[in-house]
Amino acid sequence: MSREQTSKQDQISIFGGIAKGCRTDHQKIDFFDSSKEAFFTDSIESTSLVDEDIPKDLDDGFYVYANMKKLSETELKELKSLTWREYPENLKIFLFDFCISNGDAYSKYFIDLT
Q1: Which one, of 45, 61, 62, lies nearest residue 53 by Cα?
Q2: Contact, 84 vs 31, CB < 8 A?
Q3: What is the pLDDT of residues 13-32, one digit of tens each?
Q4: 82-112 pLDDT, tens per residue?
């Protein structure tokens, strides 16, 4: 295992442990705002989009959210152009659930949580 992979695994362990304790919407929003790096653990690997530095699962989360909210392409583009902290709270909660609680990188931290 390379040093980069070990470092990435260490990051996932740290963020996974913190995220596991996030039960309320407020805790999820705080995690989202303070732990942006947790959403970018795959950004160097092949799961990233070619043109951007956004991991595929995060980008997929935006599209699923936009579909649920029936946003137009223009509205989605405007949403994605906001800074990390400017995202609406309901999007932050959704992306936490989509990428962290249900994402592959953190799956071992959320097995059998009810």
Answers
A1: 45
A2: no
A3: 999 999 999 999 999 999 99
A4: 999 999 999 999 999 999 999 888 988 887 5
> 114: buried, middle or exposed (CB in 10 Å: 19+, 13-18, 0-12)?
exposed
User: Among residues 69, 60, 74, which one has the least CA distance to residue 103?
Assistant: 60
Other residues' Cβ atoms within 10 Å of the Cβ of residue 33: 13
108's tokens: 């071992």
Interatomic CA distance for residues 76 and 90, integer angstroms: 14
Phi, psi values for residue 45, rounded to 5° = -85, 180
How does pLDDT run across 31-58, given as a tens digit for each residue?
A: 999 999 999 986 544 343 434 578 889 9
Main-chain dihedrals φ then ψ at residue 58, nearest 5 degrees:
-70, -45
Q: Is the pLDDT reported for residue 3 higher than 70?
A: no
